[in-house]
Amino acid sequence: LAPWVPVVGLEIHAQISSNSKLFSGSQVQFAAPPNSLVSFFDASLPGTLPVLNRRCVEAAVMTGLALNCSINKKSLFDRKHYFYADLPAGYQITQQRVPIAVNGSLSYSLCIDNKMSQMVTKTVRIKQIQLEQDSGKSLHDDTRSQTLVDLNRAGVGLMEVVMEPDMCCGEEAAAAVRELQLILQTLGSSQAVMAEGQLRVDANVSVHHPGEPYGVRTEVKNINSLRFLAKAVDYEIQRQIEELENGGAILNETRAFDSKLGCTVPMRDKEGKQDYRFMPEPNLPPLVLYDTKSLPANVNHQQVVNIDWIHERLPDLPSVKRAKLVEQYGILPEHSFALLNEDGLTEFFEHVVKQTEMKPKKVIGWILNVLLSYLKQHSLTVKESPVSSFLLADLLNLLEKKEISSTAAKQVFAELWKGEGKTPLEIVKEKKLELIQDQTELEQICQAVIDRQENEVIMMVLG
Amino acid sequence: PLKRGFCRFQVSAALKEGHVTATELCQRCLALIKSTKFLNAYITVAEETALKQAEESEKRYKRGKPLGVLDGIPIAVKDNFNTAGIETTCASNMLKGYISPYNATVVQKLLDQGAVLLGKTNLDEFAMGSGSTDGVFGPVRNPWSYSRQYKEKCDPKSHSEDEDSNWVITGGSSGGSAAAVSSYTCFAALGSDTGGSTRNPAAHCGVVGLKPSYGLISRHGLIPLVNSMDVPGILTRCVDDAAAVLGSLAGHDPKDSTTIQDSFKPFELPDLPDVSKLLIGIPKEYHAPGLSSEILALWSKAADLFKNAGAKVIEVSLPHTCYSIVCYHVLCTAEVASNMARFDGLEYGHRSDLKKSTESMYAATRREGFNDVVRGRILSGNYFLLKQNYEKYFIKAQKVRRLIANDFLKVFGSGVDVLLTPTTLSDALPYKEFIKEDNRTRSAQDDILTQAANMAGLPAVNVPAALSERGLPVGLQFIGRSFQEKQLLTVAKWFEKQVKFPMIQLEEVNRNNHDVFQHQKSASFS
Q1: Residue of B278, B212, B307 whose CA lies nearest to B415
Q2: Quick check: is A463 in a domain?
């Protein structure tokens, strides 16, 4: 059987972290009482007009720069029409013709094996980033045959990041999205928490034989976590391969991922191709951005966005942070990934390093193999850790000074985890875990053991 | 006579000097609205709030602290502008009973200046039409139908018949506003202008109808027809008043991203405008098929007037004029299809009782809420916006629009200051005649002379010029350069002074007469 080449592209919607919505002044807030954050414009009251939110533009520019995109100095807004209860105006304002940023790239890393011992770097091209409105939420109440509509989310700013089909499997897709998530969180342009709907991923999947044109692709929606993303993509690849090998054909359709069953199913709502009747948004002039060179002289600074100014103020991106950690602390690249992957872990690590004599290369083992595994076991975040960086540093100092053994240290850690307020030294004393440094004392103990076990000693000496 | 404020309002002066109080003025207008109810110019009369506003104004005048020239002045607003607490219907079943929670920016500005809002005026449904005949509250009747001037010229035989059946239309779609100003029930009214909807009824009703430059006045709160062409329009009885209202409305609005940022300086027009240094252009394409010989003669006479005053008058060409109607049809219907998508019955307005499914509810709501004209435009617009048609129709029309706009740029660029054209092809048709053709046909016919200015975003104004053989008003149009309203209105004012358009001889108005009105030959608050 000829080999199959799976092709995976992604469309990611990231909610912009801003105080107010993309085109209106109503607040952006998660889990507010229904319909409490809805302006006249959000409710599509006739006669209301969109006014562009500057902060959202800056967020998109930041993100575009971080993803190595060209920022379009002039971009346009369009209307995308369809009827749905959560879309009050009957259209979404988006950027279909000329988006704000294009042609970027994202580098991400994967472990070749499961042991995190060898990482390989991959790149996915970013086709474009566009600004657009989020829709409201509709909740279907089947018992009363009605749909409840909450417009709090309607009009919140989104950045749609389109990743080209350069990925080949679920793992790659998840890794790419994870890296994007970290970048967005570092920039502050989006909090990117998937569970709160701030980061939504749709996957485009197809398979083909090498040398042949790309196959028909399906779109997979309703993916709520990175883990499910990997599962959904891999399932869909498999499903398509099986379908084609059985002589079937792939429909260009939209499918939903069912997390309970672990499979993708066709979505009823989206049958048939939609013609969105795109049209320029007549109420918004082209979005013009400047750089230091093109900035006009007598301009109101409230009214312009300067790309260079934003560029200068970009924080260190995850890739840079990782490189710095490797260089500064002599840890392995895989370690730096693990540090950045857990919120607050890098800071924790650095605090410990500051407060201990132990070399960072050794500290990292404690952070990743001990602390992190405890946190995972108990489903706690770094912030919630009962063992503070101070306490851990204390413990590691005892270890470093050889006052306790490594095994003993692990026992002390387990005690510290209980969070009873005892210091490592107190625990060591309590459990008599001190390492004995005195040679004479050690000889005495050994002799006592030998004395107690005479028979075994004789057996040993005789061979 | 002393100048008061930046414009001379005889009524304002009268208010200031206490010859008449704001409340009296308001009451007289309300009474006249009642006695001219048969015109059907108003959809909603906000009697209580108007009297309250008048009371407040009176207090200010008593303290010697009026807010400006518009303080205490009764005005009317077309029913497609949002007015907080007062029904806004767009003459459609879709919005019957709809009470907006906010004021359109222009409404707010008028109220902030102390104007007294008498009510909302009638229109074609959602401003689609050129007769003000296709709204859900019925057609508006042109006050001139009941004027002595018209009745005198009517065929005595038909006159003795049901007088009612000979009435003529106001033109549209801002017919209610034009009729309200024309019949003296208010001193100024807001209309809207997308293809001529302020200038057309102004011409038929014998009033000044100003279409400002696109981007000069905020559209926030104006329920849109075509966002890229709509402007709020100003209807008054004389050019000075239009300038005064413009002064209170123009300027950047942060709520409307299509308004220009430049600061606007309100202006007063010179007492004795001078046109001798101007270059007046006569676009030959505006000699359109169907132009009545009367209007052609009037146009020619007007050109002569300018020549005799020392202005240079030349023929110019706007070669793409003939494509403007077709181009408008595509762009207008496309935007209509888009703008009307929000009317789904969910958030506000009419909602059908049909509850089988959301889709069926949408369909029934929109079928019940919109008239044929609106539905027809939505269907056309959606057709043009389909992926397979977008390039051939929408993009093509945008290109043609650019050509039309460039025609004007070229002409103005060559030194022409102002263009002089007819506003309509003829005087107002009797309603019976008008309805013999459908809305689309009529709109296509009637918009031909006014539409191109909307394509190009240029300011234009109708000035009443003379009475036709049938005793009905006929106006002429001036089209100016972008944002050169001062020059445009200066020319308009000069012309107005030359032609001395007669005052409407309307029984109800005469009965209602007051000292204040007697001062006004050119009939206004100026």
Answers
A1: B278
A2: no
Task: Name the A residues in 130-159 with CB < 8 Å from any B CB.
Answer: 147, 149
Nearest residue of chain A to residue B331 (CA atoms): A279
Share of chain A above pLDDT 70, in %: 98
Whether residue A296 lies inside any domain: the answer is no
Output the six-digit token pair for B68: 């400006």
pLDDT in tens, A39-82: 999 999 999 999 999 999 999 999 999 999 999 999 999 999 99
Q: What is the residue extent of each domain of chain B?
A: 8-153+165-325+396-512
> How far is B116 from B110, CA to CA, in rounded Å?
8
Residues A30 and A131 in one domain: yes
* Long-range pairs for A197-202: beta carbons < 8 A, 24 or more residues apart: A197/A15, A197/A153, A198/A14, A198/A15, A198/A17, A198/A30, A199/A12, A199/A13, A199/A14, A199/A15, A200/A12, A200/A13, A201/A10, A201/A11, A201/A12, A201/A13, A201/A173, A201/A177, A201/A229, A202/A10, A202/A11, A202/A12, A202/A13
CATH number of B8-153+165-325+396-512: 3.90.1300.10
Band (A194; pLDDT cuts 50, 70, 90): very high
> Per the structure, how many domains does chain A have?
2
Q: Which domain holds residue A259?
A: 5-288
Q: Which of B259, B347, B378 to mutate to test the interface with A (most CBs of A within 10 A)?
A: B347
Is A288 in CB contact (< 8 Å) with chain B? no
* Nearest residue of A to residue B82, measured between CA atoms: A47
Residue B36 has pLDDT above 70, yes or no: yes
A60 to chain B, closest Cα gap in Å: 20
Average the pLDDT over A358-378 and give the result: 93
Interchain contact B394–A (C-beta under 8 A): yes
Task: Give domain status of residue A33, yes or no.
Answer: yes
Residues of A in contact with B358 (CB under 8 A): 85, 147
Active-site residue, from B12, B78, B213, B380? B78
Predicted confidence (pLDDT) per residue in B474-515, tens digit: 999 999 999 999 999 999 999 999 999 999 999 888 777 554
For B312, phi then psi, to 5°, come to: -95, 130
Residue numbers in A near B455 (CB within 8 A): none
Q: For A82, which residue in chain B has the nearest alpha carbon?
A: B341
Q: How high is the ipTM of this complex? A: 0.94
* Residues B261-290: tens digit of each pLDDT: 998 999 999 998 999 999 999 999 999 999
A294 part of a folded domain: no
String of DSSP letters for B259-271: S--SPP------S
Under 8 Å CB pairs connecting chains A and B tally to 98
In this structure, the answer to whether residues A63 and A204 fall within a common structural domain is: yes
A371: pLDDT strictly greater than 90: yes
* Cβ(B427)–Cβ(B472) below 8 Å: yes
Q: Model confidence at B154, in pLDDT bands (50, 70, 90)?
A: confident
Domain identity same for A89 and A182: yes
B197: annotated active-site residue: yes
Cβ neighbors of B185 (< 8 A, separation 6 or more) are B29, B32, B33, B36, B41, B42, B74, B76, B118
Least confident of A24-28, A137-141, B303-307: A137-141
For residue A309, the surrounding DSSP H or E stretch is helix A307-312
